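Possible regression after last week's pipeline update?

I re-ran a chain I had predicted before the update to compare outputs. Posting the input and the new output here so someone can diff against the archived version. Not blocking, just want to make sure nothing changed silently.
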Amino acid sequence: MGNAWVNPKIIIGNTALGEYYFRRPFIEESIWDEIQKGNHVLIAAPRRVGKSSVMQAMLDRSPVDTRCIFKNIQGIKSETEYYEQFYKLLVQCLDRFGKGKTWIQGFLGSIRIEEITMEGVKFGDKKEINFAEAIKSLLAEISKNKIRVVLLLDELPEVLNSLHRQKRDSEASHILNHLRELRQNPGIRGHLNLVLAGSVGIQHVVKAIEGRIADLNDFNAVPFEPLSLEEAKNYVAWATDGATVQYDAELTEHLLNHIRHFIPYFINLMLDEINKLARKDNNPVITTNQIDAAFALIVKNSDHFKEWKNRLGEYFPTEQAAFLNKLLICIAHEDSISQQRLYDLAVKHGLQDTYMELVRGLEHDGYLLEQGNVYRFVSPFLQAFWKLDNPIYSV
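New output (post-update):
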């Protein structure tokens, strides 16, 4: 028997954990620095850069007086459910100190707990619990005990936007107000830290609900940059260490030239497709032609990128989404757009007074970047997808 085929060490779509997580020490340390100062953190990053992986990696690297809990809260459907989930996360975070249920029960007063698991908290009480008030009481006890809990909340913008689309802005506003009250409460400063992240820019979601973004001004933003070229080369070597398909310097350079925006998700798409092509041919020795073919196949499999287009309609009103899609089609076909042409396009859509705010939203969410007074796609993948999805183009 020949040697077994060894795939690259990659995860696509799901959160990369354990041995599949490529550490980002500078970002992790930047978040911890803000937490140690008593600040609350907004991870400022577009989609698919690996925010969730970094947040989950922090769970096992806490100081002795601190514990973290991570939760993707996208499934929350109401203000009431938000308060309940928030309270349960505080209890689960206390459980991570490993001091037993009796110790935790001392924090909870009359609220009785039956079981704490990775999935959640089961209460022994049959009576209805006012979770908004229970949160205040629990945080006061946490402060008295001089410990720190850190809630790493992923996809809060999704929750707020879902309520907004259902015309339940009052509930979304109450959630924002609650988070602001916690951040501004001097009695719990240094004992509760919030780290928020999401796959869309929270700024334009909050503005759609509140008409302003002042509710976010007291968050400290930690930028989440893509990998540098050197880091990207190291990532390819790390992901393919011991794998059947190997990359020398020339192949690595050719691979990365197709990606340009070096985030693990895009690199993983290429490594996975190239590995499939090589395995199909039963030949581990790859060429630049196979790398080119892999890129074309990934773009053609538009399931990887359709959600980027769908989100325009989910997060922007119809007329704004139409303008942004037209802008992206234009750049897909022409490689870039000048400031003047951008303005002219905005005028055609009646958005000349607000268009730059919309464009900045595309920058923040990882669609576009500004280079020398023109705008381009961040990723060759997205540009190729938009062009393939809109083959006929007129100005």
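Follow-up from reviewer: compared with the archived run. The first helix runs from residue 25 to 36. Marking as no regression found.
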